[in-house]
Design brief:
This protein has one domain. The chain is 20% helix and 31% strand. The chain is an alpha+beta fold. The protein has 2 helices and 4 strands.
């Protein structure tokens, strides 16, 4: 028997991509943002670069992120907290 999936339509959502520096979070966030805008959503983005240039992999100081607030109505800020977190490792989940 097939499982039913519940679909919810939201006016706005904040998505945060998080991973080690060099994991491609900036590129992933940019592509996701561009596609969202092409599909007609309003967006506001916030790229989050680590303070350390070469922080050890898997550490909190090396976490890189990209947050995008998108919606079907006017969006003015990149959002206070993420509704969806896409974390590439445990440190990204904590950061």
């Amino acid at each position: 028997m097939a499982e039913q999936t519940k679909v919810t339509t939201l006016e706005k959502v904040v998505v945060r991509f998080s991973g080690d520096s060099g994991d491609g979070m900036q590129l992933t966030g940019t592509i996701f943002s561009n596609l969202s805008a092409i599909l007609g959503n309003d967006i506001s983005t916030f790229p989050d670069f680590p303070a350390e240039i070469r922080a050890p992999q898997g550490t909190l100081s090396g976490v890189s992120g990209f947050q995008v607030h998108l919606g079907s109505r006017k969006i003015y800020t990149p959002g206070d907290k993420a509704d969806v977190l896409v974390a590439m490792n445990p440190a990204a989940f904590e950061g």
